[in-house]
Amino acid sequence: MRICEVFAWQGREGVLIQVRSQGLPPGAHAVHVHAAGSCDDIGSFTASGGHVASDGGRHGFLHPDGTHAGDLPNIYVHNDGFAQADYFSVALTLTDLTDPDGVALIIHAKPDDYQSQPIGGAGVRIACAAFGPSEP
Hints:
mainly beta, Immunoglobulin-like, 4-stranded antiparallel sheet, 3% helix, globular
């Protein structure tokens, strides 16, 4: 069973995102923030839509035209299937993560090469954690 938990806090200059996951294959895996907060279609996770790209940029930290808001660095999974990572993004806010349709953090089967289009050669989606709208 794959378990993925995500927590986020708003900082003065951006958002801190903490990811904890169990049951993933060892090695590097791409991590992206997707535009819809749905993980209902277990196994494919396509209901989460494409990457958050509010600035219209291309994919990948190494792309000559820059990156978009949904790109995060790879996560590294230990041999026991456990991974934890902290990300700080100035391209996202907590409000972005909790908009009316939410967002989903997706972990992919392969690492992101940070430049190939459209998803950095990351492969299929293997884990998902959804963020929903803010509670009043």
